[in-house]
Design brief:
This protein is α+β, with helices and mostly antiparallel strands and about 450 residues long. It is built from 11 helices and 19 strands. Belongs to the peptidase S41A family.
Length: about 450
């Protein structure tokens, strides 16, 4: 089929497209923090194909399109074809990306990613509309306000999820092992990210509060500064009853690397915390722990699950490889890539994957995650229909009943019959692990063999 119009006019339009594409490439590659290496002329010959397509679309598509709109779409396609986390953002989207580490925004309170061309939920944030609605890690968002998400990028989805306080958003979710979609209607709130919450837990029902529990919901710019005084408060409150600490990073989607390193540093007196490796020498980085201000070597357990990602995995991986803590739960999300935020001259920017994270023992986290030392799925406890078990003491005229004072460690209340067991089996297991290690050996769980296989 012949195209109408003169060859000269077509050539002029195509030349314009070539110039604009070349200018775009140069603006992306030159003068930015990520500079282009020397390329031969042949390497850029492929730009002719892109220019041809831009020209043909602009001239012949049934709908009129400005060239800058076509270039915007081409660049988005280029970045999203690389990996699930690289993307191009216009000025509004880039500003939105910078909000994520500031500590507050208006929305539902979920961290999302892209997996197999689907918008997948990494984790809901504690105390948010998403968590209260029962949204789970691994749920896939198939529609937002009736619009399919199959062609959406992360920031397009985020823009639709966020909005004015009090406004309503309708979500359609797909959940594993459920054929029917879940339709939810949520109201947006101001999401204030208080990233650290702590409390003391009793080692036995009715016993003294002797086990520290710190929940880290996300690694924001002040997370380490929040955690240290809270940890000191718990230790002082427990006094000489202190049995150890549980760090809970379940459903923690990550955040700032420096905060994860700073918190990990509290529990290590030296050595590598995490390293990054990429194609360029400047992407080969190592982050180490310092000996100053290190916490005493008390028992330590880290709780993880499938919603623990990125910075959470860095913390868990370092403490596991150094055998400073035992990791309890299920395998983490496996988000082990490094993204650089690169501003562009048009006010937009790139989120570009530049390296991968490696644990101290050299294991890459990407698409693998942290494998716990003790695998504990989050089951739901149900009391047997047969009722409580029958023991010798329940039989008529039990013989040789010894005085209870000879067994002070045994309580009249069965630890298995507790509200905590029903609510959070993984946390219950972590508490039992601390107690068991102390009673059996008098040593911290960190002494046990550990590290990623």
């Amino acid at each position: 089929m012949k195209l109408s119009g003169t060859n000269r006019l077509a050539s002029n339009h195509r030349s314009t497209a070539v110039v604009l594409v070349a200018m775009l490439v140069i603006s992306l590659l030159l003068g930015r923090p990520l500079s282009a290496t020397a390329q031969t002329v042949d390497d850029y010959a492929a730009l002719d194909l892109l220019a041809d397509i831009l020209f043909l679309v602009q001239q012949n598509h049934v709908d009129a399109h400005k060239l800058d709109q076509l270039v915007d779409g081409a660049v988005r396609g280029l970045l999203t074809s690389l990996d699930p986390h690289s993307e191009y953002m216009n000025a509004d989207e880039f500003s939105e990306a910078l909000i994520d580490t500031e500590g507050s925004f208006n929305g539902l309170g979920i961290e999302i990613s892209v997996k197999d061309d689907s918008i997948i939920i990494i984790a809901p944030i504690d105390g948010t509309p998403a968590q209260r609605a029962g949204i789970r890690p691994g749920d896939r968002i198939s529609a937002i306000d009736g619009l399919a998400t199959s062609q959406m990028g992360i920031h397009q989805a985020l823009q639709k999820l966020r909005g004015p306080i009090g406004s309503v958003v309708r979500l359609q979710l797909q959940r594993d092992q459920q054929s029917a979609p879940l339709d939810l209607e949520l109201r947006r709130e101001k999401i204030e990210l208080t990233s650290v919450q702590g409390r003391l837990l009793p080692a036995t029902p009715g016993g003294p509060a002797a086990i520290g529990y710190l929940r880290i919901s996300q690694f924001q710019k002040n997370t380490a500064a929040q955690l240290l005084p809270e940890l000191q408060r718990l230790r002082q409150q427990a006094g000489n009853q202190w049995l150890g600490l549980i760090l809970d990073v379940r459903n923690n989607p990550g955040g700032l690397l420096d905060q994860a390193v700073a918190i990990t540093d509290l529990f290590l007196d030296g050595g590598l915390v995490v390293s990054t490796r990429g194609r360029r020498p400047q992407d080969e980085l190592q982050f180490t722990a310092e000996k100053t201000a290190t916490e005493p070597d008390y028992p330590l357990v880290v709780l993880i699950n499938e919603g623990s990602a990125s910075a959470s995995e860095i913390l868990a991986g370092a403490l596991q490889d150094h055998r400073r803590a035992l990791i309890v739960g299920v395998t983490s999300f496996g988000k082990g890539s490094v993204q650089a935020l690169i501003p562009l001259s048009n006010g937009g920017g790139l989120r570009l994957t530049t390296a991968y994270y490696y644990t101290p023992n050299g294991h890459c986290l990407q698409a693998r995650g942290i494998i716990p030392d003790l695998v504990v799925p989050q089951g739901q406890w149900q009391t047997s229909a047969a009722g409580p078990p029958v023991r010798e003491a329940n039989l008529p005229q039990p013989t040789a009943v010894r005085p209870a004072e000879l067994y002070p460690q045994i309580t009249t209340s069965d630890p298995a019959d507790t509200e905590l067991l029903r609510q959070d089996f993984q946390l219950f297991s972590a508490i039992n692990l601390l107690i068991g290690c102390q009673r059996l050996t008098g040593e911290a769980p960190s002494r046990a063999p550990g590290g990623q296989p």
